[in-house]
Amino acid sequence: MNAPIMKIKFIVFILMLATAVSCKKKDDPQPAPALRSPISYSELTATTPYGTFFKDANGVSTVDRTEGRNLLRMLEAIDVYCKSSIEAKTTIDSTKLSNMFRNQSNAFTAPYSDLNALSYSIQKYTSKSTNYKSTTDKDIEKMIGALAKSSLSVNATAGYGTAGLYSSQYLLDVYGVENSQVLVSALIGALQLDYIGNYLLFTGLNGDNTQIVPGTNYSQLEHNWDVAYGLLTANDIYALGATDETMNAGESYLGASVWANNKAGYKELYAAFLKGRTAIVNNDMGELKQQALKIRYILEKSVGFDAGQHILNVAQGNGVKPHEFAQGYGMIYATRFCFLITGTEAFSKKYLNELLNTDTPHVDDIASQTFFDVQNEVRDKFGYYQQ
Known about the structure:
By secondary structure, the chain is an all-alpha fold. It has one domain (66-382). It is built from 13 helices and two strands.
């Protein structure tokens, strides 16, 4: 082959290579431009209201906590309805309570009537991250049925084997169980802990943060984080003004449990939510995952501490026995959603069955040592003496 032909082929090869490189650069996916201007973490303080810095280029807020707050209101509405039986000396309608759980048949009444128009429900998000959602739904329905049955005796006085009111404040069934407290405590785990920790702040971290959700002013990742915060607390600043002795009166359910049972954790919780939301703005996934992990550990330890402390209270004779037992029992149910600390359905069932079973069908049948043994196991699992 002569030199001119070789030279021509070489030139053609170079041109083809240049074209290929050019096409590759053109076709390669390019990093999406940041949605927001970065925020310095140093600007965040303990009294920075949530959403202060989270705005678009036009100064419009990108925060929408409505869905989380409404789920929290649904839980509150269920709690209020359960307590109404005692206050008004009326029975609980299991169908109505089930409909509130599922948000159907316009079951919510004033001041919660607006919740009827929403497309979601507690049931929709309960146990969402698990492979035992259907079992959880059935468990909640059983708790509702047990509460309704015990309310038939709301005008009677509770005794061994007799449903009725205890100390005029607590509605017990024939087994000495305050089912309203068990139900609410179970939902703290099945709804709040699971949906916040195991879904929104875990799976939800994969939400898109490169474009705005159509019809809104936020990305999917921003919204996932905001829903989580809204479901924890209705306040702009979680536990604002709280001390170890005095809780912020606006906190409830899981938020109140963190304050009551995790004195180290409640002081760090708001800062973690605020820093994590800022990390989303900054596209700082490393910081985001770190803050999400911190939040999840705080919430899980709080549930475990709650369960163990109330069972210990029963063992030591502190507080009102039926109420302490019900909260501890319901929180032991909730530990099955503590995935980071390897809480499982089997762990939860084991200790629920150790407390109430065919040999000890009534709360008063349970030996003090059994309470100590159960709380020791929960203590070892969650390490709540190591705060």
